[in-house]
Amino acid sequence: MFPLTCDDVYERETENLICAFNFFVSNDGRLKTNWLKFTLLYLSRRMSRPLHRGFSGGGKLSGNIQDLLEDSQMKVKPEKQDFDNDKNRLSADRRSLWNPFAFMFTVSSPSKQNGPENGFIVPDSFSPVSSRKRYKLTLFLLKLSLFVIVILALSWSFWWTLSLTTASRNHTFRGYRRLQEQLVSDLWDIGELSVGASSLKETELCSLEFENYIPCFNISENLELGLTDGQEQDRHCGPTSKHNCLVLAPSGYKVPHRWPTGRDVIWIDNVKINAQEVLSSGSLTKRMMLLDEDQISFSFASSMVDDSIEDYSHQIAEMIGLRNESYLVQAGVRTVLDIGCGFGSLGAHFFQNQLLTMCIANYESSGSQVEITLERGLPAMVASFTAKKLPFPSLSFDMVHSAWDGIAWNYKDGIRLIEIDRVLRPGGYFVWTSPVANTRASVRNKDNSKVWDFVRNFAKDLCWDLLSQQDKTVVWKKPSNKDCFTSRSHGSGPSVCKVGRDVESPYYHPLEACIGGTHSKRWLPIEERPKWPSRFTLSSKELAVHGVVFDDIIEDDLNWKSAVRNYWSLLSPLIFSDHPKRPGIEDPIPPYNMVRNVLDMNAHFGGFNSALLEAGKSVWVMNVVSTTGPNHLPLILDRGFLGVLHDWCEAFPTYPRTYDLVHAEGFLSLETAKQRRCSILDVFFEIDRLLRPEGWVILRDTSSLIEAARGITARLKWEARVVEIESNSDEKLLVCQKPLIKRRSNPS
After folding, report:
1. How much of the chain exceeds pLDDT 70, in percent?
2. Residues 599, 602, 607, 608: is their CA dihedral positive or negative?
3. Which pTM does this prediction carry?
4. If you placed Cys at 322, which of 143, 294, 317, 653 could pair as Cys (CB 3.0 to 4.6 Å)?
């Protein structure tokens, strides 16, 4: 193909486009970058000019574009001179055979000027047939070249991504991880664009039935599936448990009181329980009282069993052999699992003595123990071990407490007691308060007497030592060594799990009728462990059990101390102002009790938890270890913290509006690097369900993933701001706050 001349300024705009296009096309037909720049410049200039006859965007070239052409002609002057002698016009019926931008113009009427009908002017040196063939051939070659380039680019990208995915099975390098995250981010953006207008539609609001609902705990659905004997209370996650809608707060919802006031007083409209339920709840009224129409007050002086909570905890300490409950820490007790915790009264009292109590109870649609305990700012989660193991590693707690639980401990030959033994550390205590344990009453009740005899004998088979029994309360101690298991007579009690079945961190595995944890390297009696607060800094020997180097923990803790100082200053609506800035010295620092319930979605070594405690913040942290990443949950629990294993493609086992702060560092990178059965959007809807109104979200991740996540926050109606990290240009913070959106009350 011979280059066309551009020495004349033609009358028609389309002529100028053709002239410019041919100038920027080399002899071999390849399109130069300059043509793209020219077209963009031309279109941007012409969009602002008035319309001329017959063409949308018609008119002559502007002065700047004409200058561009004149300057460009200097580069092809020799070629132009060779071709000037052959320059003529083609007839009007040949002017539209080749014009790659014809779709931009709309012909409204024929031109009234002399010349071709639509104003396309090209040289007349070619015959109609040969010109048409050359034009078609050029256009075909141009399209074919672009098509080949696109195919090659896509093939190379697919091959490269596949090679990276294969390499990631052995080792993950920082360089290609960043490339992979960028690829995911790009594909995410493309996906959002491909959805089009549908992605911009208003996010649906959940119906009233979801106000206090926890997915995966649908009792009525479980009953329809034929699950009975308590299995309907267990957790069952399926496709129907996913609901991507915004859960609104009740119409009377109020922001909870800050700690420690919130421990003793809660708003009644924030939980699903009413005054009538409180007054008709029997023993419930002994430990709570209704102050007025909209608040519930809890008192340590209120009765939990027959005596006050102080007397009860004092009794437990004495039965262990201690002067009072303040000495429990010195006896090696730090973490307590409270089964059927009521409303967290024991945990609230233990917290004053540096004991951390995790409350677990079945899902309850109204008057929930877990929901009210969390509303008070105390650790709790929904859990049932009727048929499945608890989501905690073996040897996790120093004490297990159960009072008035209604659990049939003789169910399936004591399989639930075996699960208690699994999560209890060597030398730990099992405290059981029940009317069944009252020997005098059991004599008159044969059923109770039968249960008591079973529990007492089965505890012996587990090698538990009966320390003391006072009225309805019994305290057992788990053995500190394993000698008892080998010295038992054959056939007495459950066997010890074999190595292959002794899974240290089961994730809702079926209950097993064998003693677990005996093969763990973490078998260490509580009296030999460092006492709190020294425990959260484990020794090199203890860390070696977890495959972690001491220097890594020290470095991780130092980094988190610095991060917490920065995080805390950001918990202010100031960052969402029109002129956002980091709060400075002149700005008030958020109070130490700004938040209480904290959820760390990707806890790593528990460094965030450690830094918050060292900074003196009045928080407790639910350290979550994702099933898709390295399992450091045993390490976290050995440091004296609370935590749980969880798959974030499933609903977290808690009620809506239960956490003040949700934190995740590297979580997006972890989740997007795996082949998941859910989207990040699903996870963000779950975060919104867990978060209290006016609660905070802090995400730290790579810049590309943070920018992509920011778009999702708009759908959730969060206030969001991306914050630069001065020490790391590859990462950013996404700080968000959830607004208070209430459900409209029905008119009476």
Report:
1. 69
2. negative
3. 0.73
4. 317
